[in-house]
Structures are given as C-alpha cells and as structure tokens.
Amino acid sequence: MPEERVYTISLSKVYEFPRTKRSKKAPSIVKTFVSRHMKTDADNVKLSNVVNALLWRRGLKKTPRRIKVKAIKDKGIVRVYALDEKIKSETKEEKPKEQKKK
Predict the structure, then answer these.
(1) How confident is residue 91, by pLDDT bands cut at 50, 70 and 90?
(2) Cβ pair 71, 79 in contact under 8 A
(3) Phi/psi of residue 58, each to 5°?
(4) Which of 1, 2, 10, 58 is the S-S candidate for 74 at Cβ 3.0 to 4.6 Å?
(5) 38/69 Cα distance (integer angstroms)
(6) Residue from 36, 30, 88, 89 nearest 56 by CA
C-alpha cells in the first residue's frame, strides 16, 4: 500500500545562491527534503511537471519562498505532486464511446 504525506517545503535555502541560479537549484532542494523525510535516496524521488512549473513560474530569479506538495511512496519510488494537482491513476480507465447522432 502506498504511503502518502503532505509537506510544506521552505525554499529559503535557495536564496543563499546567486539570483541567476535560484530556480535551477530549487528542484534539488525539494528532492533532498523529500528524500530525507520519506527515507529514500534522492535518485528515487521524481517531481511532477506541475511542481517544476511552480518553481519556475516567477522566472529564474524569484523562486517561491515555500511550496505545498504531496509525496506518495510506492515500491521505493517517491513521486512528488503539487497539493492541488489532480493525480492520474496508473491504470487506464476506458471512457464509454459516444454514439454519433444521425
């Protein structure tokens, strides 16, 4: 059964870097935070595209001060999603086909 947790991650450490490298360093800070709290390696942490977009939405120099994420650990791999992001299930759900109107 997957383990699921919600975190508010402070990105204040990003502001110790020069302005032109802040958004580049933010994903690695998120990965190290999640790996430490979910007890896994940073290599096993995968960020969703929405989390990456949250980190980059204000540009290279102005990363957010904190973000809220949902971390789901399943079989040693931790996937990190934005808290408001809709998570697609791994199984394919078939939609009923619509009939054409005559």
Answers:
(1) very low
(2) yes
(3) -100, 10
(4) 2
(5) 13
(6) 30
Assess contact for 32 and 80: CB atoms under 8 A.
Answer: no
- With beta carbons less than 8 A apart as the criterion, state whether 69 and 38 touch: no
**What's the fold here for domain 3-82?**
Ribosomal Protein L31e; Chain: W; (3.10.440)
- For residues 51 and 37, give the distance between their C-alpha atoms in angstroms, rounded to a whole number: 18
Domain-wise residue ranges, the chain: 3-82
DSSP string, 2-43: -EEEEEEEE-GGGGGS-GGGHHHHHHHHHHHHHHHHHTS-GG
Average pLDDT over residues 31-58: 95
Whether the pLDDT of residue 92 is over 90: the answer is no
